[in-house]
Specification:
The structure holds 2 protein chains of 2 kinds.
Chain A lengths: L2 H21 L4 E2 L10 H26 L15 H21 L1 H15 L5 H23 L10
Helix pairs in contact in A: 1-2, 3-4, 4-5
Chain B lengths: L1 H11 L2 H19 L5 H8 L8 H26 L8 H12 L3 H34 L4 H19 L3 H15 L2 E2 L6 E2 L13 H19 L23 H23 L4 H16 L11 H17 L1 H7 L5 H12 L8 H4 L1 H24 L1 H8 L3 H20 L2 H19 L4 H25 L10 H27 L12
Antiparallel strand pairs in B: 1-2
Helix pairs in contact in B: 1-16, 2-3, 2-4, 2-16, 2-17, 3-4, 3-9, 3-14, 4-5, 4-6, 4-12, 4-14, 4-16, 5-6, 5-12, 6-10, 6-12, 6-13, 6-16, 7-8, 7-20, 7-21, 8-20, 9-18, 9-19, 10-11, 10-12, 11-12, 14-20, 18-19
Classes of the chains: A mainly alpha, B mainly alpha.
Chain lengths: 155, 509
């Protein structure tokens, strides 16, 4: 994938965000008067974002128009991206399910899914490892750190 | 100062801190040696565990993980030519060449002794230099601090990024994210869009793990079809191939000393980091060596120079953080976060407000080198065995630790959502050449900038020329311009000299 095209899209989005920060007064609500003002620094930063994005975007656009050969960093290797998407999906499922099903049940399932994604098929070792890890982390957090990880709750 | 150092040692010689150092070293070497896991990842995962212990124990443990993790990176670099970080690339070059000749154990010994020597000397510099610098920096008022912070943003942004605009943009984005939530000055809620969870801003730990740690896990997932190499120490039948004698150590000591000096100096400058130190020290060692042709072909001097320089950065990178409140690199940014979480504000005041803690941490830093030497020396084979574990055992555990670490920060699932969002953001940033470490530094320093800018404006009123009345303003502005200009040359030189093979350099440069 051509990173230069992504650069142009990213730069455009960031410029729009920067302009919104510069123009919109409703981005800061309440507060007291100060020498600086609540939106002074955000607006300075927004100006920088616009300027730097423009530099990156224009450089990439010119390279695309001149049909320059892509250098090493400008090619995004997409092989293995399906796995990345699956990993993110597994993590989202972990976040979503834990409050309902509980940490002790969700964790082994998630660990086994990730192990499977990474090519693990050695179930006789993976299953005990995932269960033991879940228990050690759950009770370790509870007793040593006083952190109470979510438990089973369908309410 | 001497009394403080003695008091520091007396605080560190207790069961808690020593156990923390030993466990930190074990964790650091193990994580560092596993290809795909770096020292910063280890620190970020361990960080939440330290919230609940004494700052001396917690921070000493994190520093032990840091030092041992940097050293651990050289194990996989030497034995399977897979540097865990760009800084170990040169170690891999000569170390792997020695491994192929059956001298893997010797390469590991050279790396260990050079690392420990470099770290210990840099730590001594940190101990004796930090306090005097902090006395000078105490003289700085809000105006000077504003210029200092602007200088830091410019230098870190321009030197650490893939390119100068991308580095500065990473910094600006970090600054923008830092301003989400209640303003500490006016009390106004900014960029919250009526979402109550955003009023407190983004929680630091989940954001940190998301931006710095999880993209490395994603990288491993992306490269999952590439066969995992087995890490093994190949023993030689000749005893001299397996050890690094004192005579050999003495012969490379001048190189170690010079490289440590380079590493200490580079580490003390914000933004340059261990990779630059290793590259410069290696080039210098090669230039002055009697056998420059051996460099890249299994040179003991090559390993010693790269390792002592990149480990010297560990100690000296804390100098700008402890004296000026400026984290010099990503690990220092993370450690700065850890200090803040423990109620210690890194900066010149730390030496007067909490001398007993800071000198205990320094003492722990020195003690870590001693323990690192003995633990690593005794456990070469154990650590290589652990590092050889299949990735499908390691990375599910890393995922669970990251999840738990994020949850621990505020004991709520919202923080896990923050982790996921920043994981995606951090990985996307890497894809487009933005630097997540600079993003974090921008995030951490912005509240200090805003506070000092507000105070500075209150001081100058409408007389804006007063901003430039102090010589500090001119000095820092000139330094910022100089660093931006010189970063062009440094980047050109490094690109010209070394081309990192994409398959071998796992993490960011």
């Amino acid at each position: 994938m051509d990173r230069r095209k992504i650069d142009v899209i990213m730069a455009s989005v960031l410029i729009v965000v920067g302009v919104i920060i510069l123009k919109n007064d409703n981005l800061s609500v309440g507060g007291v008067e100060s020498s600086l003002g609540s939106l002074f620094l955000p607006r300075i930063v927004a100006l920088f974002i616009i300027g730097l994005s423009a530099i990156i975007g224009i450089q990439s656009l010119l390279k695309i128009r001149k049909k320059q050969i892509q250098e090493g960093d400008e090619i995004i290797n997409l092989s293995g991206f399906l796995g990345v998407n699956l990993y993110v999906a597994i993590f989202i499922a972990y976040w979503f399910l834990t409050p309902y099903v509980g940490f002790l049940i969700t964790t082994p399932v998630i660990m086994l899914s990730i192990a499977f994604l990474l090519g693990g098929r050695n179930w006789w070792i993976m299953i005990p490892v995932s269960i033991i890890t879940a228990f050690v982390v759950f009770y370790g957090c509870r007793h040593f750190l006083r952190v109470f990880l979510p438990t089973w709750s369908l309410s | 100062m001497i009394e403080n150092i003695i008091a520091g040692f007396s605080s560190i010689f207790a069961v808690g801190p020593i156990l923390a150092i030993i466990s930190g070293i074990f964790i650091g070497i193990t994580f560092g040696a596993i290809p795909g896991i770096s020292a910063i990842m280890a620190i970020a995962i361990i960080l939440p565990l330290t919230f609940y212990v004494d700052p001396i124990i917690g921070i000493t443990m994190l520093l032990a993980v840091y030092k041992a993790g940097i050293y651990g990176g050289s194990i996989s670099a030497i034995l399977i030519n897979t540097p865990g970080a760009a800084a170990s690339f040169l170690t891999a070059l000569d170390g792997y060449a020695l491994t192929k000749k059956g001298q893997g154990l010797k390469a590991l010994n050279v790396s260990l002794l050079s690392s420990v020597t470099g770290e210990a000397l840099a730590t001594l510099v940190l101990i004796f230099v930090a306090a005097p610098i902090s006395v000078i920096s105490l003289q700085a008022g809000p105006i000077e601090k504003v210029f200092l912070l602007l200088f830091a943003f410019t230098v870190i942004g321009s030197l650490s990024g893939d390119s100068i605009p991308r580095g500065l943009l990473s910094c600006a984005l970090g600054m923008l994210f830092a301003m989400v939530g209640l303003s500490t000055i006016t009390g106004a809620s900014r960029f919250t869009f009526d979402i109550p969870q955003l009023i407190g801003g983004f929680t630091f730990t989940p954001m940190l793990i998301g931006v710095l740690v999880m993209p490395e896990v994603i990288n491993v997932v992306k490269r999952r079809r590439i066969k995992q190499e087995v890490i093994r120490i190949g023993d030689s039948s000749r005893p001299e191939d397996n050890k690094f004698s004192f005579k050999e150590y003495k012969s490379v000591f001048p190189t170690i000393l010079k490289s440590t000096g380079i590493g200490t100096f580079i580490g003390a400058l914000p933004g340059l980091g261990s990779s630059t130190a290793a590259f410069i020290a290696y080039s210098e060692a090669k230039r002055t060596s009697k056998e420059p042709e051996k460099f890249g072909e299994g040179s003991v001097e090559g390993i010693a120079s790269a390792e002592s320089a990149n480990n010297a950065v560990c100690g000296s990178s804390l100098i700008p953080m402890l004296t000026l409140s400026i984290p010099g690199d990503d690990v220092a940014a993370l450690l700065m976060g850890a200090f803040l979480i423990h109620g210690l504000t890194p900066g010149p005041l730390i030496f007067t407000e909490s001398p007993q803690i800071i000198y205990a941490i320094f003492a722990g830093f020195l003690l870590t080198d001693l323990f690192l030497f003995f633990i690593a020396k005794a456990g070469f084979r154990v650590f290589t065995k652990i590092a050889s574990l299949k990735r499908y055992y390691i990375f599910p555990c890393v995922t669970v630790f990251a999840f738990t670490g994020a949850f621990t920060a505020g004991q709520n699932m919202y923080d896990v959502l923050v982790l996921i969002m920043f994981m995606v953001l951090g990985y996307s940033m890497r894809l487009v050449g933005l630097n997540p470490a600079v993003f974090i530094i921008g995030f951490i320093l912005t509240p200090f900038l805003e506070q000092n800018l507000d105070q500075a404006l209150a001081i100058v009123g409408n007389d804006y020329y007063l901003f430039f009345a102090s010589p500090f303003s001119w000095v820092f502005t000139a330094l910022a311009i100089f660093f931006v200009y010189s970063s062009f040359h440094i980047k050109k030189k490094i690109k010209k000299n070394i081309v990192l093979p994409a398959d071998k350099a796992i993490t960011k440069s």
